[in-house]
Specification:
By secondary structure, this protein is of the alpha+beta class. The chain has helices spanning 2-19, 113-123, 184-188, 198-209, 212-243, and strands spanning 24-32, 39-44, 53-63, 71-79, 81-83, 92-97, 137-149, 156-166, 168-179. Helix content is 32%, strand content 33%.
Length: 244
């Protein structure tokens, strides 16, 4: 019985190591002042067919019209990749209304130091900041998407463009392509779409962390860790008792 418990505990540890895929940034591109007449394209081949691929897009835009007519249309065209959330979608379009996005004084992607470090370490590229003047109204938008590589495809492409813009121009668009588990700061990018202040986001995080569901998950995790450690210690003492 004890051996079965130990085998179960080791199996749980092995399962955790298998399902936790290491995060890897495949490629990174940055496009400054992309105009309506051109689309930016990035190509990459280093995505494993069986893994989880993801993209993180970060847009820095300047609003020049002070009302809801300030908009831009963000278009993403994948080749060799299937949108995991909407497999039948061939073209992703997002209408960005400037007034719905948060104003930013600190807008640089370099503010996310973990992401910036990983980009530089894994791609040897440094993030370039757009040229911004005093008084410019800057807003940001982030989008994270999961992709499934098409079977038999080895060359992948992602094209991004802003074919329509009115009073809201993209100063910089950054695209990160990765595989495996998404780094926490990539997930945190989505918080950039919220008009909550930093303090309000921290309060929201604390409220979520203190919720009954969160507490139950933490309790179950601690119990599982305790059982694994207890089974391992019992195995050691049982072996020592058998030898004596």
């Amino acid at each position: 019985m004890l051996k079965k418990i130990c085998v179960l505990g080791m199996g749980l540890l092995l399962s955790c190591s298998i399902f936790a895929q290491e995060s890897k940034i495949v490629t990174f591109e940055q496009f400054l002042q992309l105009d309506v007449e051109h689309a930016a394209q990035m190509e990459f081949t280093d995505v494993t067919p069986s893994t989880q691929a993801w993209t993180a897009i970060y847009v820095i835009g300047k609003q020049t019209v002070p009302d809801r007519t300030a908009q831009m249309n963000l278009v993403i065209l994948p080749e060799g990749l299937i949108n995991k959330a909407n497999p039948t979608e061939k073209l992703s379009q997002t209408l960005l209304v400037a007034d719905d996005l948060p104003l930013r004084k600190k807008f640089s992607l370099n503010e996310f130091d973990d992401i910036a470090d990983e980009i530089e370490d894994q791609t040897d590229k440094k993030i370039q900041d757009p040229v911004v003047k005093d008084g410019d109204v800057i807003r940001t938008y982030a989008q994270v998407m999961d992709w499934v590589p098409e079977y038999g495809i080895q060359d992948f492409k992602l094209s991004i463009g802003v074919p329509e813009q009115n009073g809201f121009e993209p100063l910089a668009i950054y695209m990160i392509v990765g595989e495996g588990d998404k780094p926490q700061q990539v997930i945190d990018l989505m918080n950039q779409n919220s008009n909550l202040t930093k303090e309000e986001m921290q309060d929201k995080f604390r409220a979520t962390s203190n919720s009954p569901e969160s507490g139950l998950i933490k309790m179950e995790t601690r119990l599982m860790i305790f059982l694994v450690i207890a089974a391992f210690m019992m195995f050691l003492y049982w072996g020592k008792w058998r030898r004596n």
